[in-house]
Amino acid sequence: MGQPLNAVPACAKQSRRALLQRIAPAILVSDIASASIPDTVSGNTLTPIPTRVASPTAAPATRPPEATSPAPPSTPLAEARATRLDGDYRNAYLAFHGEAMRSRDRDTRALATLGSAETLLTDRNPGQALELLDEWIDTYPEHPQQYIARCLRARSLEQLGPSRRSDCVTAYREALYVANPAHPEVLRLRIANHLFALGQTSNAWQELQLAASGPTSTTTQAGRLAVLEALNGRYVEARDPVRVAATAVASLDAAVLVGRIPEELAEIAWRAVTASMAIGDNESANLIRWRIVTDWPETPTAFLALTELGSSTVPAWARARIAIANSKWKTARDALDWLVANAPTDPNRGRIRAMRAVSANALGDPGAGAQLDASSAEAPGDRWGARALWEAAESRRDGGDLAGASIRYAKLATDFPGSAEAARARYRLGRLLPDLGDVASGNRAMNSAADLGPVGFHTYRARAILGRRPARPPSTLPAFIASGALTETDWMTWEDWLATRGLISAEDRTGLGAPDLAMPLNRLDSLLATGFVDEAEDAAREACQLRQFSPSIVASVGARVQAGGHVPFSMSLGHRLLRILADTGEGSLLTLPNVARKLAYPLAYGRLVGASAARSAVDPYLVMAVMKQESWFRPEVTSAANARGLTQFIRPTAESVARELNWPNWNWDDMTRPYVSVPFGAHHLAQLIDMFRGNVLFAIASYNAGPGPILKWANGDYRRDDDLFVAGITYRETREYVTSVATYAECYREIYGVS
């Protein structure tokens, strides 16, 4: 009979803690250190999590804290901060500076001056920022923002380059002496990095020792993980394989507790495998490989672990999941064949047969079409049943059997109504049925494609074919900006929606005011305020993980991160929230409350986008969609092709647009500044739309691939059917780019547009 479906070898069942206990004592900061890292850092034990006690004064269940109130800015300082978060650094600086000059209130002057310095630093003017911060620290020695000011001063020195490393060390140490720093281990890790670069190795190791033994790193998993990853990197440089292995394994344990995504966890685990192998600890390496294939099977790393363990040693079900996730269709088919033959009573039998049919179809097996038809009926409601039926329908359509395809599309829409395949099937029916003589049914199918199911490219196409007027943005810039705010009504609706579906627990109703969330949230706020955004991401994940990523907590933390100015990560949390809700059967963006929708599709840089789009006469939602796809709203990002900024310009195109706009004092580095890249992107997009006679899809494709191949893909026809045009795009990247941007734009119109 072979192995049972979910059998796992005994060696794979050993405790992870036992593994850590075997090797973690090797984690020493240096040979000169007299004390080892405490057990809470080495991984031998974990600091107990405080008992979760409901606070009678806690915020409402999913309401964001007062600091993230969605109310519009009501003071000059709040307006200046909003302008800075929106990427308009020049006007933000003028607003802060003006308030500092005219205010008679000492505290207001202090906050305005600090805002000016932070804006200069964000705009990469560290020299001016440093001058302001030096003066500010001397002028306001007792101000509660001293810690933030000193951290910003240290970051200004870092931006000035390697020549200021010694000053950076001093500045970070001064920040540590401010009362109750929220993330001292982050500062000590920065100090250590500079000391290593200065060749002061002994002092650097001592700083790592202090970081590892400090209070924050032993009470938040995010702080512990930061220390462990830093230690691991230094041990790699020091060629100390025993300690490399120890810190790698301990990092994996901390990363799980922090709530890293499966792909990242599998990669961290693989580093632990490699490190264990380097010291000849094959047993530990195999334990970690088993953990990868068991806990994170649908990752690229899992296929590496499967290969090294030996495919035949891994249970067939895990082997099939890993192979399908990595498009290793023969491996998947062989594993699924074994399950079909040897697990006749398995409750997943319908899914297994559907997955087997999909694998056979990918391999071009004779008879795969019949298997797809048969298996879809055996997996009712299952995503693999939906995929099998979709592939059966597409196969019929590609072969010219339109009647057979339409029967399967109709069955898909009926039997799997909430699936992504069903949404596409409705659109296919809308195109096919009129050709088969049933115009009325075709119209009904097309309308349902526009209104039901997950929003995707088919939604955009259905609305275009039906001649529906697309949603328009608010007619004025203030209204456009205000439409992106999360209101009190949005939060009340969200809470009620969760409650009616049983998606909010009594524990979640303590909100972000629960005692066990205080430490990671304080750390999160401090990291965002001082500009350590990468470190802030793990603090946010840890807060979510403490509630097992419940929808209410993920939304509240996402709103907090967004208010702190880190839109890329708050948007990532928003998309994670959409996946969580989809797993509960709530997969349609059209029916979700605004809290979930606006976190995943924020009006980032709304002032710049609204003004730039109006100036270039282009749809601001299309500009938003391009930015979301191009850069995930990260202004500093540079691609492998050296494209820069929010709108990802290559240098020749940027130079051309700078000339056309007569941009004053433009230089290539400006493309990482939002107030440059956004108007450049809007202008270029408008040019492309005009070049292709108003055809938006042609313009989107040209934005990615250049104008050269567009008319070839369009067969020389400016009015080419959009489906035929997309199907004719020979660059896979561009084809996916076009459908993604069109979908994002449709989502933005759905969420924010007005009739």
Summary, kept brief:
Helix content is 65%, strand content 0%.
Descriptive report:
The protein contains 40 helices and no strands. It is globular, with a radius of gyration of 28 Å. The chain has 5 domains: 15-45 and 182-277, no CATH class; 78-166, Serine Threonine Protein Phosphatase 5, Tetratricopeptide repeat (Alpha Horseshoe); 317-453, Tetratricopeptide repeat domain (Serine Threonine Protein Phosphatase 5, Tetratricopeptide repeat), CATH 1.25.40; 485-600, no CATH class; 606-752, Lysozyme (Orthogonal Bundle). The chain is mostly helical and 755 residues long.
How far apart, in Å, are the first and last alpha carbons? 63 Å
The CATH topology of the largest domain, please? Lysozyme
Determine the oligomeric state from the structure.
single chain
By CATH reckoning, the class of the largest domain would read Mainly Alpha
User: In percent, how helical is the residue content?
Assistant: 55-70%
Structural class, from secondary structure content? mainly alpha
Rg: 28 Å
Outline the secondary-structure elements.
Elements: H1 16-23, H2 39-42, H3 76-85, H4 89-102, H5 106-122, H6 126-139, H7 146-159, H8 165-176, H9 184-197, H10 201-213, H11 215-219, H12 221-237, H13 241-258, H14 262-278, H15 282-295, H16 300-309, H17 316-325, H18 329-342, H19 349-362, H20 368-378, H21 383-398, H22 402-415, H23 420-435, H24 439-451, H25 457-466, H26 477-482, H27 488-500, H28 518-529, H29 533-545, H30 551-563, H31 567-583, H32 594-600, H33 606-616, H34 620-631, H35 651-661, H36 674-691, H37 696-705, H38 710-713, H39 722-728, H40 732-752
Helix pairs in contact: 1-13, 3-4, 3-5, 4-5, 5-6, 5-7, 6-7, 7-8, 8-9, 9-10, 12-13, 12-29, 13-14, 14-15, 14-16, 15-16, 16-17, 17-18, 18-19, 19-20, 19-21, 20-21, 21-22, 22-23, 23-24, 23-25, 24-25, 25-40, 28-29, 30-31, 31-32, 33-36, 34-40, 36-37, 37-40
